[in-house]
Amino acid sequence: MKDIGSFCVGMPSYNEQQKISTFLDHETAKIDALIAEQQRLIELLQEKRQAVISHAVTKGLNPHAPMKNSGVEWLGEVPEHWEVTPLKHLATVQTGMAKGKDLEGIETVDVPYLRVANVQDGYLDLDEVHLLSVPITSIDRYLLKDGDVLMNEGGDFDKLGRGCIWSGEIEPCVHQNHVFAVRPHSVAGEWLNAYTTSKAANSYFISRSKQSTNLASISSSNLMGLSVPLPPAEEARGILVRLNELVKEIDDLKHSATQATDLLQERRSALISAAVTGQIDVRGLVPEAEAA
Q1: Taking CA 194 as the corner, what is the angle to CA 193 and CA 198, rounded to the nearest 5 degrees?
Q2: Contact of 107 with 139, CB cutoff 8 Å
Q3: Strands 154-155 and 215-217, how do they pair?
Q4: Neighbour order of strands in the sheet with 210-212
Q5: What's the whole-number mean pLDDT along residues 149-167?
Q6: Contact at 8 Å (CB) between 22 and 286?
Q7: CA pair distance 39, 261, nearest whole angstrom
Q8: Gyration radius of the chain's alpha carbons
Q9: 165, 172, 154, 144: which is closest to 117 by C-alpha?
C-alpha cells in the first residue's frame, strides 16, 4: 500500500481529463471494431479450413463421382469406388504411460515425453517438453516411432482426437497416457491424420466419448472403431496434395489476420499510453460539446 500510495500520477485539468477520455473512447472504439472484424475473419477461416478438409477426405475432389451410402450414419455418402474400413484393420494403437506410478526400487531413466499440450491440431508445440521417469524395461513399450499419428485422448469437444504426425523430432521420446500413438500399417499416415481432423471423425469421437462439463475423452477401443473412408492410393495422394495447397492458402490468410489483430492491439495500447502521458494534445481534437 505504501508503494501504491507513493505512485506519481500526471494530473491534467478536469476539463482536459474529460477530453482525453472522450478522445480515447472514440478512437479505441474504432480500433476495437476493427479487431472484432479480424477475429471474426479468423473464426470464419477456421470453419472454412475444417469444411475443406472434411469434404476432401469424405467426398474427394471429383464433384461428378458416383456416390454410395457408406453404411455409417455420421459419415454419410462416399464415392462409389471408395472403401470404408474400421481403423482397427488399418493401424494399431499404442497407449502412453500414466504419471504418478510408484517406481520405488525400480531402475528408471528420465526420458522426454509428450503431453496433450504438445500435440496441437496439425502441428507439435515442443517449446516446453518435460521429462518423465520410465522403467528401463518399459521404454520400448512407450517409445514413439517415426510416422506415428498422434491423437489426444481428451479435452474440449473440438480438440478430441486432434493431432499430427510424429516425425522423430526428439529421440528418444515417449508419450503420456492422454496421447495415443496410432501406428498405421494399411493406410497412409497423412491420410489418416487429415481424416481425423474432419467433422465426420470429430462427430464420431464425440458420440463415443465420456463427457463432463465442456470436456470429453475417448478410449482406445472406441478410437479403433472409427470408420475410415479409403480412396485408391494414387487418388488419395492427389487429394492430399491439393488439400495441402488449399489449407496453406487458408492458413496464410489466418496468419495475416492474426498479425493485423496484433498490430491493432499494439496500436490501441500505444494510443492510450500516449494520450494519458501528454504525448498527444487532444484539446483541439475533441469539440467542447462532445467533451462535456
Answers
A1: 115
A2: no
A3: antiparallel
A4: 154-155, 215-217, 210-212
A5: 82
A6: yes
A7: 7
A8: 26
A9: 154
> What region does 60 belong to: left with phi over 0, alpha with psi -120 to 50, or beta?
left
% residues pLDDT > 70 (the chain): 97
**CB-based burial of residue 245 (10 Å sphere; 0-12 exposed, 13-18 middle, 19+ buried)?**
exposed
**The pLDDT value given to residue 286:** 63
pLDDT top residue among 16 and 69: 69
174, with CB counted inside 10 A (0-12, 13-18, 19+), is buried
pLDDT over 90 (residue 184) = yes
Q: CA 31 from chain center: how many Å?
A: 27
pLDDT over threshold 70, residue 108: yes
Read off φ and ψ for residue 208, nearest 5 degrees.
Answer: -105, 5
Per-residue confidence band for 120, with pLDDT thresholds at 50, 70 and 90: confident
> Which residues make up the CATH 3.90.220.20 domain(s) of the chain?
69-230
List, for residues 262-277, the tens digit of each pLDDT value. 999 999 999 999 999 8
Q: Are strands 108-114 and 174-175 parallel, antiparallel or unpaired?
A: parallel
Average confidence score pLDDT of the chain? 90
Kindly tell me if the per-residue pLDDT of 181 is higher than 90.
Answer: yes
Q: How far apart are CA 28 and CA 134, in angstroms?
A: 53
Pair 82, 231: CB distance under 8 Å:
yes
- Domain range 69-230, its CATH number among 3.30.70.120, 3.90.220.20, 2.60.120.10, 3.50.50.60: 3.90.220.20
The per-residue DSSP string of 219-240 comes to -HHHHTT-EEEE--HHHHHHHH
Inter-residue contact 149 to 91 (CB < 8 Å): yes
